[in-house]
Amino acid sequence: MPPADHWASLMRAVAENQDRTAFTAIFDHFTPRLETFLRRMGLDADAAEEVAQDVMVTLWRKAILFDPAKSTLSTWLYRIARNRRIDFMRRNRTVSVDPHSKIFAAGIDEAGSDLILEEAQRDDIVRALIATLPEEQRGLLVLAFYSGLSHSDIAARENLPLGTVKSRLRLAFQRLKRGLEASGVDSVR
Predict the structure, then answer these.
(1) 124: Cβ–Cβ under 8 A, 6 or more apart, which residues?
(2) Which end of the chain has fewer CB atoms < 10 Å from its terminal CB, N or C?
(3) Is residue 180 within 8 Å of residue 162, measured between CB atoms?
(4) Integer-rounded Cα radius of gyration of the chain
(5) Does residue 66 come out as left (phi exceeding 0), alpha (psi in the -120 to 50 range) or beta?
């Protein structure tokens, strides 16, 4: 994922010049992620697509309101998506969700909404901390968690001993834990 200042400069181009190329880059990157987020929050595929499109229209119309000093673009967009999802569910009470789902329960009250925002902010902190890891640790962490590879698969792919992969990942986790503690994040849920 490009750095936050990359997104901030694209947002500036959208806000100041209605730059369609910048908007397209943001749209192409964030729309599928927003749809996935909304699906996890209980919307079906069509509803998630509709709400994600609404979020992107909001971005286009209100780009001037984005302040990179207050939040990252992803946090801003996920906050808008969360609010649009709540509005959508109020308008369309027929949305099919499991009422016993932890995610559904979190989405129906303000405390749950705050939890979602906290998680998005924690994700931003984790991404920033990952960026500070030595490349040998960062690369393995990305393969393990973003690509979903097992330790054995990583060892084979990177031509490293399995013990080395495990040691580097353990060191990465220790650094992440210390960084989270220093950032005031209580725990990773």
Answers:
(1) 71, 72, 74, 75
(2) C
(3) no
(4) 19
(5) beta
The whole model's pTM is what?
0.51
Do residues 9 and 75 share a domain?
A: yes
* Max Cα–Cα distance, the chain, nearest Å: 55
Residues 77 and 152 in one domain: no
What's the CA gap between 36 and 23, in Å, rounded? Answer: 20
Q: Where in the sequence is the domain holding 174, given as residue range(s)? A: 134-189
**Residue that terminates a domain, selected from 132, 154, 171:** 132
The amino acid at 34: L
Structure tokens at 36: 């996935």
Phi, psi of 108 (to 5 degrees): -100, -10
**pLDDT digits 0-9 by tens, 73-98:** 988 998 899 888 888 887 776 444 44
Residues 96 and 157 in one domain: no
Q: How far apart are CA 105 and CA 111, in angstroms?
A: 10
Tens digits of residue pLDDT in 18-66: 999 999 999 999 999 999 888 888 888 999 999 999 999 999 999 999 8
Distance, CA of 135 to CA of 137 (rounded, Å)? 5
Rounded to whole angstroms, the Cα distance separating 44 from 40 reads 9
Statement to judge: residues 165 and 111 lie in one domain: no
